[in-house]
C-alpha cells in the first residue's frame, strides 16, 4: 500500500476525494462531511488553495442523506497537490482527509478502458449474479 501511495503522489490530478480521516486519529464522531456542511462551506475553505470548478457531495439514493464524502474539482493540479500534502483539514469543526481522486484507468495505466455502461435488463448478454 505504501508503494501504491508513492506512485499516486507522482500522478497529476485536478480532483480530490474528501471524507473521514483514515490516516489520522481524532475525536470520534467528528470526521467526514455531515448534514450541516454545505457546498459553499467547502468552497470557502478549499478555495484558499486554488480555483474550484465543482463541488460534489455524495448522497444515499434511498434516504437522500449525505454519505459523508465528496469530490472537489480544481482548475489546476498544484491546488490538489497542496491540499493532499497538508493531510487533515478542519471545516466547520469536522475533520476531513483529502486524497487524489484518480480514475480506474489512470491507476491501471490503461487510458483506453471502456466507460462503464448500465446493463440493459432485457439484454440476452446480461451478466448473472
Shape: globular
Order of helices and strands: HEHEEHEEH
Q: Count the E strands.
A: 5
Computed CA radius of gyration, to the nearest angstrom? 17 Å
What gap, in angstroms, lies between the N and C termini? 30 Å
Major beta sheet summary: 5 strands, antiparallel
Q: Strand content of the residues, in percent?
A: 25-35%
Give the helix proportion (percent range).
10-25%
Number of helices: 4
Which structural class fits the helix and strand makeup? alpha+beta
Q: List low-pLDDT spans.
A: 1-8, 111-115
Q: Mean pLDDT score, rounded? A: 78
> Largest sheet, order of strands side by side?
2-3-1-5-4
Provide the descriptors you would attach to this structure in a database record.
129 residues; 5-stranded antiparallel beta sheet; 5 strands; 24% helix; globular
Topology summary:
Elements: H1 2-9, E1 15-19, H2 39-46, E2 52-59, E3 66-74, H3 77-86, E4 88-91, E5 94-100, H4 104-108
Amino acid at each position: 500500500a505504501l508503494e501504491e501511495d508513492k506512485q499516486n503522489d507522482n500522478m497529476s490530478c485536478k480532483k480530490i476525494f474528501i471524507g473521514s480521516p483514515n490516516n489520522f486519529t481524532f475525536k470520534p464522531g467528528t470526521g467526514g462531511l455531515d448534514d450541516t456542511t454545505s457546498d459553499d462551506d467547502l468552497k470557502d475553505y478549499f478555495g484558499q488553495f486554488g480555483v474550484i470548478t465543482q463541488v460534489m457531495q455524495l448522497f444515499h439514493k434511498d434516504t437522500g442523506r449525505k454519505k459523508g464524502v465528496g469530490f472537489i474539482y480544481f482548475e489546476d493540479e498544484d491546488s490538489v497537490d497542496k491540499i493532499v500534502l497538508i493531510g487533515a483539514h478542519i471545516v466547520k469543526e469536522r475533520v476531513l482527509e483529502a486524497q487524489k481522486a484518480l480514475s480506474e484507468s489512470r491507476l491501471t495505466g490503461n487510458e483506453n478502458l471502456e466507460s462503464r455502461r448500465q446493463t440493459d435488463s432485457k439484454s440476452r448478454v446480461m451478466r448473472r449474479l
